[in-house]
Every structure is written in structure tokens, then in C-alpha cells.
Amino acid sequence: MKQLLRSLFGSFRDLAPIIVVVLFFQLVVLQQPLPNLLQLLVGLVLVVSGLTFFINGLEIGLFPVGESLAHALARKGSLSWLLVFAFVLGFATTVAEPALIAVAEEAAEIAALDGSIEPGKAAEEAYAAGLRLTVALSVGFAIVLGVLRILKGWPMHWMIAAGYVLVVIITAFAPDEIIGIAYDSGGVTTSTITVPLVAALGVGLASSIRGRNPVTDGFGLIAFASLTPIIFVMIYGMVVH
Amino acid sequence: MPWSIVVQTLLETLRDITPIVVMIGLFQFLVIRRPMPNLRRVLLGFLYVAIGLSLFLLGLEEALFPLGRVMAKQLTDPAFIYGGVEHLAGVVHWPDYGWVYAFAFAIGFSTTIAEPALMAVAMKASQVSGGAIGVWGLRIAVALGVAVGIALGSFRIVTGLPLHYFIIGGYLLVVIQTLFAPRMIIPLAYDSGGVTTSTVTVPLVTALGLGLAETVPGRNVLIDGFGLIAFASLFPMMSVMAYAQLSEFRARRQDGSNDE
Predict the structure, then answer these.
(1) Do A186 and B233 touch (CB under 8 A)?
(2) Residue of chain A nearest B18, judged by CA positions
(3) Out of A162, A209, B45, B252, which residue is the most buried by the measure of CB atoms under 10 Å away?
(4) Are B210 and B145 members of one domain?
(5) Rounded CA gap, A32 and A22, in Å?
(6) Residue B82: inside a domain, yes or no?
(7) Which domain holds residue B229?
(8) Please, which residues 50-89 of chain A have a Cβ atom closer than 8 Å to chain B?
(9) pLDDT per residue over B58-108, tens digit each?
(10) CB-CB neighbours of B130 under 10 Å
(11) Are residues B101 and B217 in the same domain?
(12) pTM: predicted TM-score of the whole model, two decimal places
């Protein structure tokens, strides 16, 4: 009970800044009354209790699963299964991501408006589906690359620097309309459920391989997953437009 | 609040979780072929995550997001910005948008503090570093990065400067910082660029971007409305590396004064 109260309080503290910002701008800057005060309070209660459940669920569910899978796969010693797992993890969690579906639909509308694809529902849907597959493939590829990095101990910063050089070069050649979408798609790929699992996987792997430090080697998977979609989507844009 | 929305949110969260559960189950039983330790506890954990995320999203969607969207619209409304003073149509004077930048900064900071994905990464980082990387230190560093990024991003929309100048300039800075930052923080700093832009920040920030692009004369919603997310993923890398450099610098100075 005490534990629960403490984590409820923690969630409330996490949300306090949003409440302060909203109140300040609404009452002081815009000088408007608060609409639907009751609805707002109900919403806050929902948010606070939701956050409490989520954090507790992380600790007893997602974190242990990610780590025990990483340990088990590392003990099994099969590199190919580990890489298959990494790819499927990236691909499966991204292809159904709602934020990505929204961005892909938006991008298809833009492409149809400026005439780079044929107008019509079918062409738009094909374009959006292609975009989603491209991003999902790129995230699968990113997790594979990140897992290989952990295994081999390659230095993170060289790989990321090379990735960004590639981004800059491709930006110069990619059609203007796709650039904003490509850059944004890097950010939307990693959902709230994927992130904890991927972090646990990386840290679990790094701690079960001798000579790897969980802090220096365990992180970085998410960084790859935010970088490769930019490259892949711009290439997709160059091919389609 | 209608029950259909509650059910719909819960179903959406379950749809997000299902591929992960199926995949983990397949690997556990086909590849590893050993029962999962503490299976019941783990399943309970997944249930908590599903319920928690649904309630969280429901609360945001019902209470905070509508208000945030209305505020973003009001703050970018020409009537508010020019305060009733006549202004020349088509001429944009960027300092007039002061409250917009302040709002962008404040909303970027506060939503990042409440971002569940960032909490997860900060918890893990603090745990494996034995507390050397503090949960709050990391979260505040990332939140400051997002705040600066979104404020600068709104400035870009108001002025209409090209997006890629900022992004390329930003990445150059990141590369330079990487050369000097402590080794330990680098992967974590790069990761924090990706985790900031999930559930909480994206909807509010997108509303702000679209609102701005709609009301600032001479801006195109399609070209200028997006790209704020890119800023929000770029700046945390810098701020987290800066945080590590700062704490290393302070530790070194403390060591130095202890030696004397």
C-alpha cells in the first residue's frame, strides 16, 4: 500500500510540469477560463494512474523479459537466431505502429497533391504501404546492426557519424517533398512499448558477453532505429518520385 | 466520457502489444525451448503495461490534448500576436511571436518529463551505471534539449528558413561534441534523441507546428508544418552530452581541489 502510494505520488510529480504550463498559459498569458474543469480532473486522474501501472508493469514484465531473452539467446550461442530475433523485433513492432501509419498516410496525400504519384485512392494507399514497409525494414536492419555492434564492440560514434554523413549526402539528392517526412519518420518509429524492450535487450546482451560494458555497449540500439529510417525513406522517395 | 472511446483505446494498446507478445512467445518456445522464468509475474507485468498505457493515453486525449491544441491555436492567432494593432499583411516580424517560443519551450520541457519511454531508458541507465547517471539528471537534460529544439523549430517556421540548414548544422555540432564528450555517455545520448518523441510530445508539438504554419503569412502547411519532431530528436543529443561533460568537469575540479 505504501509502495503504491509512493509510485502514485511519483507519477503525479512527473505530470506536475505539464499542469503548471497549461495553467500558466491559459490563465496568465491567454487570460481565458479553464473549460470543462471536471473533464480535466478526470483526465488527470486517468493519466496519473495509467503512468503508475505502466512503470510497475515495466519493472515486472517488459524489463525482465527483454533481459532473460537476451541472456538465453547469448547462452545458446547461435548468432543467426540472435540476428533473426533482432530483425523481427524491429520489423514487427514498427510495421503496426500507429504513429507511423498516420505519417505514411499524410505523406501519401502530400505526394498526390504535388503530382509526384498518380492521384487516386489506390496509388495513395500503395505509396503509404510502401513507405511503412520501408521504415519497418529499416528499423529491423537498424536493430540487427546495433546487435552486431554490441557483439563486435565496434565504436558507436564512428557508425553514427558515418550514418549522418550518408544522411547529408542523400539529402542533397532527395526530392524536397520527402525530406521533412524522412526526418520526421526517424522520430516516430520507436514506440513506448518498443523502447523499454529494446533497451533491456541491449543491456542484457552487453552484460552477458564478457568484455562488454552495459553502459557503453548496451545502449545505442534506439539511435540506430532513429537514423536508418531517414536514409531508407529518402531513398524510397528518390525511387518513387 | 463515452465507453466506446475507452474500449477503442484499450484495443489499440493491445494491438500494439500483441506482435511483441507473439514474437517473444514464438522465440521462447521454438528457439530457446525452455519455460520462461516467473511466467505469471511477467504476464501480469504486460497486463499492467497495457492497462497503464491505455489509461494514460485516454487521460491525455480527454483532458490535456484538447486544451493544448486550443492553446496552440490561440497563441498563433494573429489577433493575439499583434494585440489588435494593425500590421502590414505579408510582413512577418519574428520577435512578435515571443509567447509562441515561450510556449514551445515550456510544452517541450514538461511533456518530455512525463514521457514514459524516457523514464524507461533513464531507469535502465541509472541501474546499469550504478547510479553514476542519475534518473533525474538524464531526464532534465533531455527535457531541456527538447525544449530548446522545439522553441528553435518554431522560430524556423516563423522565419521560414530552410529546415536542412538547421538539421545539418545541428548534426555537425553533435559530431564535434562527440569528439569531446565522455565515452560512457555517447550511446545513451544518441538513444535519447529517439526516445523523446513518442506518445506525449508528438501530438502537442504537431498541433503547434501546424497552427503556426497556418497562421504565419507566407508559410506553407505542407512544407513548414512538419520538421518540429526532427528538432526535438536532435537537441537532446547535444544536451545529454553537455550534461555529461558538465558533470565530468565538476568531478575533475572537485578532484583537483581535493589534491591541494
Answers:
(1) yes
(2) A93
(3) B45
(4) yes
(5) 11
(6) no
(7) 90-259
(8) 50-65, 68-69, 72-73, 76, 81, 85, 88-89
(9) 888 887 777 777 787 788 777 776 665 555 555 667 777 788 899 899 989
(10) 9
(11) yes
(12) 0.84
Q: How far apart are CA A161 and CA A167, in angstroms?
A: 10
Q: Does A26 touch chain B (CB under 8 A)?
A: yes
Within 8 A by CB and 6+ apart from A191, the residues are: A93, A97, A99, B16, B117, B198, B199
Measured in angstroms, the CA of B77 and the nearest CA of chain A are apart by: 11
Q: What is the chain B residue with the closest CA to A191? A: B198
Tell me if B37 and A35 make a contact (CB, 8 A cut-off).
no
Q: Are residues B19 and B142 in the same domain?
A: no
| Å between A25 CA and nearest CA of chain B | 8
B110 with B61, same domain: the answer is: no
Spatial separation of the C-alpha atoms in residues B115 and B101, rounded to whole Å: 21
Q: Tell me the average pLDDT across B181-196.
A: 87
Contact: A179, B164; criterion CB under 8 Å: yes
Which of A43, A51, A221 is the closest to B62 by Cβ?
A43
All three cell numbers of A214, joined, read 552495459
Window 121-150 of A, Cβ < 8 Å to B = none
CB of A10 within 8 Å of a chain B CB? The answer is: no
- Tell me how many domains chain B contains: 2
Query: B177 and B95 in one domain?
Result: yes
Q: Supply the ipTM of this predicted assembly.
A: 0.82
Between the CA of residue A45 and those of B52, B100, B122, B166, what are the distances in Å? 12, 29, 24, 39
Indicate the burial class of B10 (C-beta count within 10 angstroms; 0-12, 13-18, 19 or more). Answer: middle
Q: Are residues B105 and B164 in the same domain?
A: yes
Rounded distance, CA A93 to CA A108, Å? 22
Residues B203 and B98 in one domain: yes
**Which residues in chain A are contacts of B16 at CB distance < 8 A?**
96-98, 191, 193
Alpha helices in B60-134 (DSSP H): 65-75, 78-81, 98-113, 116-128
Residue B188 lies in a domain: yes
Grid coordinates of A151:
557483439
